[in-house]
Automatic annotation (TrEMBL):
Main location: cytoplasm
GO terms assigned for molecular function: L-threonylcarbamoyladenylate synthase
Protein location: Cytoplasm
Family: Belongs to the SUA5 family.
Domain of life per record: Bacteria
Catalytic activity: L-threonine + hydrogencarbonate + ATP = L-threonylcarbamoyladenylate + diphosphate + H2O
Protein name: Threonylcarbamoyl-AMP synthase
Keyword Magnesium: no
Domain YrdC-like: 12-198
Nucleotidyltransferase in keyword set: yes
Length: 328
């Protein structure tokens, strides 16, 4: 069973134990502001292999490397001026940039899945301290079995991977609750590879550039992990429900009551006041709770596709996708 250290009461023990486990080439579950990550030394192929094995993740799906400052990022990737501006504006924070790998980088090709680019992010919160202490980038996917819902609490991680892990750092619920927004700059264009915790509108406001969505950019899926079913709860998922069939679990938004909800196995409101940030922070936990109710189907009420609603709906649509075939 994993050892769990509370970073709020015992920050020094958390840092020194994490450094120890990471140095042994073993993964540590770390709290980030987006979701909990399964972190390991990005320069050590054995350590990275542990990540893929623990998650049951296909090795062609590259990992994001997490850095504690821009100088650490610059050892491994080359910044174009626009990417640098984005990093300066939004790091530390829920933004991953896809950048060309430097040939001198010591990040192991297992982490980048052999690509000539690397996903890089400077996370906020305690995880950044862990990276600074360790002194090297940490490769970290979300700390869940591949294809399952990402964890936003230490308890989520423990329930899924606790048997396989040595150490989980508990820093309370992730504040954002959705994975990072992934962007790739190409010339003057900024392409969205995954909607996430950074609102694309903030990027457009800063740069004066319209971010290209996959649908407007020729519909090629470029983040290999974005294919098919993902974020799958045990129950099946129904979108845009205007009524509830008895026994279904209902997850709604903005205090909007749904016909027949009195017959639902459980009713959860992502944000009764209609705040999309609050809804994002609750999404994965509520999906897990709805699943735990034993209902065969989770019905989602309508959610506006604006601001973080875009990323929230992306995750729900993936949860609703057919489970067979594709990447899990
Ligand atoms: O918020 C987050 O991003 C969390 C926390 C732990 O930082 N991490 C996370 O990692 O969500 P993961 O492995 O679950 O998702 C990483 C995504 C995958 O879809 C992967 O295919 C894509 O990033 N990715 C990584 N490197 C890439 C690259 N060089 N080019 C394109 N996509 C890449
Ligand atoms: Mg993930």
């Amino acid at each position: 069973m994993a050892e769990i250290i509370d970073t709020r009461t015992d920050p020094e023990a958390a840092l020194s134990r994490a450094e120890e486990v990471l140095s042994e080439g073993r993964p540590v579950a770390i709290p980030t502001e987006t979701v909990y990550g399964l972190a390991a030394d990005a320069t050590n192929p054995d350590a990275i292999s542990h990540i893929y094995e623990m998650k049951g993740r296909p090795r062609f799906n590259p990992l994001i490397c997490h850095v504690s400052d821009v100088a650490m990022a610059e050892e491994h990737v080359a910044f174009d001026p626009l990417s640098r501006r984005l990093a300066e504006a939004f790091w530390p924070g829920p933004l991953t940039l896809i950048l060309p790998l430097k040939t001198t980088s010591k990040v192991h090709p297992l982490a980048s899945a052999g690509l000539d680019t690397l996903g890089v992010r400077m996370p906020d919160g305690f995880s950044r301290k862990v990276i600074a202490r360790f002194g090297r980038p940490l490769a970290a996917p979300s700390a869940n079995t591949s294809g399952k819902i990402s964890p936003t609490t230490a308890a989520h991680v423990e329930a899924d991977l606790g048997e396989k892990l040595l150490l989980i750092l508990d820093d309370g619920p992730s504040q954002i609750g959705l994975e990072s927004t992934i962007l790739k700059v190409e010339g003057d264009a900024i392409r969205l590879l995954r909607p996430g915790g950074l609102d694309v509108a903030d990027v457009e406001r800063l740069t004066g550039t319209t971010v290209e969505r996959p649908s407007t950019a020729g519909a090629t899926i470029e983040a290999p992990g974005m294919l098919a079913s993902h974020y799958a709860p045990g129950a099946s998922v129904r979108l845009n429900a205007t009524s509830v069939v008895g026994g279904e679990a209902l997850i709604r938004f903005g205090g909007m009551t749904i016909n027949g909800e009195e017959n639902a196995a459980v009713v959860l409101d992502l944000s009764p006041s209609g705040n999309l940030r609050e809804a994002a922070a609750h999404l994965f936990d509520y999906m897990k709770r709805a699943d735990a109710s034993g209902a065969a189907t989770i019905a989602f009420g309508p959610i506006p596709k604006e601001g973080l609603g875009e990323a929230i709906l992306d995750r729900i649509e993936r949860a609703a996708a057919p489970r067979d075939g594709g990447l899990v």
